[in-house]
Amino acid sequence: MTLSHAALSTADLLGLFAHFLMLSLLAIGGAITTAPDMNRYVVAEHHWITDAQFTASIAIAQAAPGPNVLFVAVLGWNVAGPLGALATMTGTLLPSTALTLYVSRWGARRRETRGMRAFTTGLTPLTIGLLVATGWLLARPYVADGSHAIGALAVVAVSIVGMLKTRLSPMWLVAIGAVAGVLGWV
Amino acid sequence: MSDDDAADTIDQAKAATPRPTSLADLFFTFNRLALQGFGGVLAVAQHEIVERKHWLGRAEFLETLALAQVLPGPNIVNLALMFGDRFFGVRGALAALGGLLLVPLFIVIGLTAAYAEYRRIPAVAGALRGMGAVAAGLIIATAIRLMPSLRTNRLGPWLAAGFAAITFVTVAWLRWPLVWVVAGLGSVAIAIAWVRLR
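The joint structure predicted for all components is written out below.
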């Protein structure tokens, strides 16, 4: 997250916008399930930001109030400043918004049809696989950094257990993670 | 919340049918619930819309949510759109969406800019690394919470688990573009589900 953002050409910005447009329609089960493909595009393919910057973008969005989908705007901002945020955010929202408005008038009556049920039944396992892939990709930069691998794994484990076994608000888990980080454990 | 409360809420909603009075009412209600939501807004949305405002009964809320979840895009965003649309058409949908996103967007971008400024301070960089590890854990926990649904999936538990595993391997390890995975693997899964649901 340098102060000067990667200088993206207009073509690059349009490419970013188009990629997020496409991902919007693949975001079954939430925008976060497409995070691995966002990572593939902005980190692995174009090298606009690093793996650690990618995870930091999602961490900032989770620590802030508001819908988690705002991580998309943070990613865009870190790639190319305000224009980048505009490209990723409108790309993410436009297609799904149009589709939702269309289907909410039409699909409410058809939710129980065989086609709709086959759609959800078939895609639920993919959603679960994508969520695990997202968690894996987010943890990777910390776990791969040998000096803090144990601490990072411990924080990941504590937040999984905290989420599943306690009624603690995620906000407290994020706070615990921040403290562990300040103490230099992660 | 007890079941009695839920029943009361539904009854009240039916009796009084309160509804958003204006586009501004929609905007500020969604703004208010968005700003209370740390690490996810859905639970807060349920509280504000069902328990506090009585704009929807609990069952109606769950029904709207189910449809919001099936559609692509963020669930809470879809929910806001469908809810706003129901009362004021497209303008209502946009008012709810704006309320949900606008102020939180400025806050998160402000935090991002602040982080860029102070990230050389070890404590700041460390805090964000810690929060990133938690973010990973929260998402994995969400996946674990959904895993029991594989057992009851009409594809059958083994096939469903297989699809989940192949998705993980192709996306996280092989780094295949998501569109291939969803178009290829997803179509096969939907086709099998279609056959088995008969």
